[in-house]
Amino acid sequence: MADSPLVSPARRQATLWALEQLEQRMGPDWPERYWDAAGHVPGEVNLGGAHTGALGNLLELALRLHLLTGTPGLGGVQREMKNDLRDDRRRHCALQLEAAGLAVRSGFAVALEHRSSRQDPPSDVLLQREKTALRVETFAIIPDQRSREGRAYWDRLSQAIMRISWKLDVEIAGDLGGRLDDDDAAELLRLIEAAAQAAAETGAEAPVMFKDAELRALPSGAGPCELRGGVEASRGWPRVEGRPLQKAEQAARAGGGWLRADLMDGTWQFTPWAHASLPDKIDQISKLVKPALSQIDGTAGIVISSGACVAQGQFSGLSTRTADRCYGFVRPLPGYRVRQTIIIPLTTQGRGEADLWAELYNAEDSWLDWALAKAALPSCQQVFGH
User: Fold this and answer.
1) pLDDT in tens, 65-112
2) Which of 120, 204, 119, 209 is nearest to 170 (CA)?
3) 209 and 194 share a domain?
4) What is the CA radius of gyration of the chain?
């Protein structure tokens, strides 16, 4: 994909450099082994040569590994990512690298899998600058089995509809309704193909009505059209609240500190909370997080984010801070991505340390350009064209 004539020389150079970094560190058979274990290849590897958002994630992962070379504990994180071929463990390791990579730019000394003593379990990340030391426990909440099954269903249905559209040179628009069983899904596709055939032959719109689906087959070039469907609500905080408590207890045994979590299960996209303003998001999630995590001694606070997501629509940078020193950021990232981040301190010391987390994530949108320059690679503008 990177060798396509449509790919600019700068983008090709950066893509192949990043893939070579991963091949050297994970082994040339890593994608194949990942496929055998998980049934798919990590998106940043599989799509990095063609998909802009995936390329942003690929470059960040490879640059963090490169810039952290020589960091205490990096070898252990690399080995885990190489050998534990599960999505949640890969995301966990990537978060360790993310926190460390952002901190290095801000002048922190960094260690991974650091033990305060031989008897204590390790902290995922230790960040030190002058008299400040932040111990960090990272984790990611990925889609559960129900969500993965739903995503696979909508992917299959969308691809089948796309094939019909291409074969007959028509557009399919409207609402797909809810998820169907195999027999009903097959019937819906049969009706869509029949309507598409009619639209191709007559040049007129052909409707499709089945169960909750309300669709139209349109001749190619008939005007703007949109195919909707496939949005299933996340169960949000009730599904994930046990994980922060578990990780806080783990962090306490390692010396306490901060939690750094990515909620990648749809909480940031498909819940009523996701549509609230940034100050309201902070207020609502703080009321859930603070009482729960305050039960665990030594927990200074939690940094929660959406992960670096493909930007669906237009996003502008937003920042807010509350009276009790919670922070919220929305940052468009290179590669048509966006991240939303909320920082919630729990203690007096945590409120001071929240400023340090804000320093890291406030400037996240320029980190990739800084890292590309450090590796003597083309700039974001050259690679992405923006």
Assistant:
1) 999 999 999 999 999 999 999 998 999 999 999 999 999 999 999 999
2) 204
3) yes
4) 23
Q: Which of 171, 198, 228 is the last residue of a domain?
A: 228
- Take residue 175 and report the two structure tokens written for it: 């609402």
Residue 1 lies in a domain: no
* 245 & 206 share domain: no
Q: Give dist(CA 197, CA 169) in Å, integer.
A: 9
Range of the domain at 213: 146-228
Q: Do 200 and 99 lie in a common domain?
A: no
